[in-house]
Amino acid sequence: MFIDLGGHKSLQSMKQLSVHRLVYNFVQDLIEFNSLANELSLTPIETLSFQNSFSDSLDYNPWNLISLNLDNSSLKNLRMTENRLGESLSPYQLFRPPPSLQELNLSSNKLEKFALNLDNIRNLSLQNNFLGRFLTTHSYKIPISYNRLD
Questions:
Q1: Which superkingdom (predicted)?
Q2: Is 98 helix (H, G, I), strand (E, B) or coil?
Q3: Domain annotation for the chain: domains and CATH numbers
């Protein structure tokens, strides 16, 4: 998927978007993903879903690109499910979620560690990951000071 610069103008009534595909060309996909996130920040998007869209060997962190680009958006629900997100979402390297985000679903990934500022999150789903060992000694919540957009 690629949205040209200014493509958001035709998407002004879009409240939901689902992206379902595998990533093959990391450099091209990063350009496309940045373009998508930038244009979505200019729409009234409320629900964004990425299913089977990212692998663990990404050269970029999709969470941080979403957080950065959609920080001032109306995004309420984010689903990044059935991906292979493991080390690409390591704790203490993640930007805070957009302030409007209320529901976060990271189910069925390969997360072994996860920690994030969850002050505004009302519903969190982390099922079907590999978090057992990490959560026996760590919390999945971290103070806001660790998740800044610096």
A1: Eukaryota
A2: coil
A3: 14-146 (3.80.10.10)
